[in-house]
Amino acid sequence: MKLDLKLWPASALCALMLPGAAMAADFTIVDGQTETMTQTLSDPGDVGTVEAGGTISTAGNSEDAVWMQDDGQSVSNDGRIGTSGYDSYGIWSEGADALISNSGTIETSGEEGYGIYSEGAAAEIFNSGTIETSGEEGYGIYSEGAAAEIFNSGTIETSGDEAVGIASFGADAVISNSGTIETSGRWSDGIRSRGDASVISNSGMIETSGEETWGIWSWGDDAVISNSGMIETSGEDGHGIYSDGDAGVISNAGTIIVTGNGANGVMSWGDGVTVTNSGTIASEQDNALELRGSNATVNLLAGSVIRGGIEFADPGTATLNIGPGLNTALTVTGMPATVDAGGRPLVVSGGVVAVVDPVGFGAAPSMIAGATGALANSLDRRMRGPVSSSAPSFVTSYFPVAGGGDEGTSAAGWWGDVFGGMSSRSASGNEAGYGQLHGGVVVGFDREVSASTRAGLFAGGLAGRFAEDNDATVVGMTGIFGGAYARHDAGTFFADLSLTGGVTFNDSDRQVLNNLAPGGIETATASYSGVFASPSLTVGGNYEVAGTTFTPSLRARYTGIYLDGYTETGSAAALTVDSRVHHVFDLRAQVETALVDRDDAGDMQRVSLRAGVDGIFHRGDDVDADLLGTGISFASGTDEDVARGFVGVDAAHAMPGGRTFNAGFEVGAGTDSVVTLDLRAGLRGRF
Questions:
Q1: Cys-Cys link to 372, which of 274, 379, 534, 623 (CB 3.0-4.6 A)?
Q2: Which InterPro entries does the entry link to (predicted)?
């Protein structure tokens, strides 16, 4: 550290007496120019510039490359700055409101050879280049003044003991690293802050390997520390984040990995500290989380992975909150007096906190309801009759009907559809989000049973996948189904009736956060089957208004689902779940209209437009289960009444010979914030 003898105005006389100092109002080192004397800015507002290809290189003790003596001065380095002596800084700034920017290279090799050293308040320091120091106490960036702002998007490397990457000793500092900080000496923290109310963020990489060397160390009260990048330490007692101050706020959405003996992922000594995690914190030999102060709070959110111990030194005043989207089997030393899972199933037993996120338990009913709904749409398309006596039958029908014009008359027809859909819900409030896929293949046969009635049979297979955010729960489904359908067409009025039954085979994977398991995550797996039955009745009519035919209809559909019980394996918090029954009632009102064209080859085209609303009502048993030997009961998360609006488009290409290719889609959005998309394509013909 420099002596006070360099304080202005004595500094000017001292500078003149030093053979290696060059006084200047401003200076510019251009490409190809090399200076070996200290470049000094002496007046407020002076500007120093080292252009790309320019060099300042000093040798000897206390021979700084750049000396900024007054307030409001700025230095920009795009070239190279180097020092090799004891107490020789790359850039030394004494005044307030300094602006220092490095996008080139700063190298120091002597003891206490700081890359950038700033004493004044409100300094702004930017590094997008490279700062390398190799001497003991060779800090990369060092700031003493209050309200400093330090931003690193480049590389800072130090190799000596007590050679911190970025250090700030003033209050109200802002330190941001989006680049790389690497230190290898003892006590050489990646970032060190000793002032109150400092804000420290890392979205880049901090790597330390020395003994008692921490990724981020904050000493002041009211500090805010956030990591969305990577922090790795490998030295003994090399903590990832270490906080001494009271009322600190620490958040991790990135990765913290510590491997040394006695190294904690996050270590806090202050009172009233809050730690929030949605990333990975791993300690190979000690605690991942250790909070020594009173009134400590830990919030674990979706995406959390904890590997290593969790310890509260003052459990009587501590709080542990488990957020949505997490299943847990956490072993805790010093169980907090308050453990809260936001109303989700929770069991605390033998030092283990087990939480079950219920969202995934609605997966099987949701996929079955979605698949049978898409199948019902295919059956509706198959059964729908002509919209008017003058319109060709293929306008809304995929099989020929008597009087159908160019399509002729057939007593029997065949058809096949591929159908599928997806739905998703974003995380909101206390509920995790999810995505769902469902689909299937169906083939059918029908024939006339009277002049106004047709009936047929169908069979097929279905599949689905439900994935909660971060794959907290993933359920896969396969199944087979079959059924019968009939249509009665009484001119303007029509009625469609169908009955579907099937069996499903379900595989469930629940990711369980277990801080003592290898990798910090266990997978609780289970397989179980289910059966379902789904009758559907549609009534409607065809009405012409101003030359356009509209087809309003009302469909009532019920799906009854029975799911077997099962016992999970693979987790310390494995569940034993009882069998249950789920009911879905779907009342659909829609209006459809169609357009008809004939192409040059004589083939017929159809486009059908429809819109409407679904009223969906879920009812069913609660999930009854055993968790850690304790009986629990909870709603599956699907017992909700939903209104859903939708629009759909269907198109068909009907050709002479009785063959028709058709396709369609439907999009919808519900009051449950679920967005849906259904797709369908098929081929049909007549015998």
A1: 534
A2: Autotransporte_beta, Autotransporte_beta_dom_sf, Pectin_lyase_fold/virulence
Instruction: Give the pair of three-digit tokens for residue 410.
Output: 């057939």
Q: What is the DSSP string of 322-371?
A: E-TT-EEEEEEES--SEEE-TTS-EEEETTEEEE--GGGGGHHHHHHHHH
The structure's pTM equals 0.87
Residue type, 315: P
State the Cα angle at 509 between 368 and 677, rounded to 5°. Answer: 35
C-alpha–C-alpha distance, residues 290 and 29, integer Å = 51
**pLDDT per residue over 396-443, tens digit each?**
333 333 333 333 345 788 999 999 999 999 988 778 889 999 999 999
Tell me what pLDDT residue 653 has.
Answer: 86
Give the whole-angstrom CA distance, residue 58 versus residue 248.
Answer: 42
Copy the structure tokens of residue 8: 């202005």
Is the confidence at residue 390, as pLDDT, over 70? no
The Cα 395–Cα 634 span in angstroms is 48
Give the pLDDT band of residue 395 (cuts 50, 70, 90): very low
Find out whether 485 and 458 touch, Cβ atoms under 8 Å. Answer: yes
Whether residue 169 is predicted with pLDDT greater than 80 in this model: the reply is yes
Residues in the chain: 687
* End-to-end Cα spacing for the chain: 97
d(Cα 173, Cα 323) in Å, to the nearest integer?
31
Cis peptide before 386 (omega within 30 of 0): no
d(CA 105, CA 101): 11
Is the Cα torsion angle 419, 556, 637, 572 positive or negative in sign?
Answer: negative
Distance of CA 218 to the CA centre of its chain: 28
Q: Could you tell me how far CA 220 lies from the centroid of its own chain?
A: 31
Retrieve residue 562's tokens: 């029975």
Distance (Å, whole) CA 412 – CA 617: 37
Residue 508: closest CA among 280, 345, 327: 327
Calpha distance 76→135 (Å, rounded): 24
Token readout for 52 is 């790309």
Whether 20 and 63 have beta carbons less than 8 Å apart is answered as yes
DSSP state of 375: H
Pairing assessment for the beta strands 659-670 and 675-686 based on DSSP bridges: antiparallel
User: What is the 8-class DSSP label of residue 145?
Assistant: S
Hey, how many other C-beta atoms are within 10 angstroms of the C-beta on 633?
A: 11
Closest CA to 263 of 241, 238, 281, 284: 238
3-class SS of residue 10: helix
What does the alpha-carbon distance between residue 295 and residue 291 come to, in Å, rounded to a whole number? Answer: 10
Closest CA to 11 of 41, 37, 35: 41
- Residue 366's contacts (CB-CB under 8 Å, 6 or more residues apart) are 423, 436, 466, 638
| Type of residue numbered 253 | A
Supply 368's token pair.
């079955």
Identity at 233, one-letter amino acid code? T
Nearest Cα residue to 265 out of 289, 297, 229, 299? 289
Looking at residue 408, the DSSP 8-state letter turns out to be -
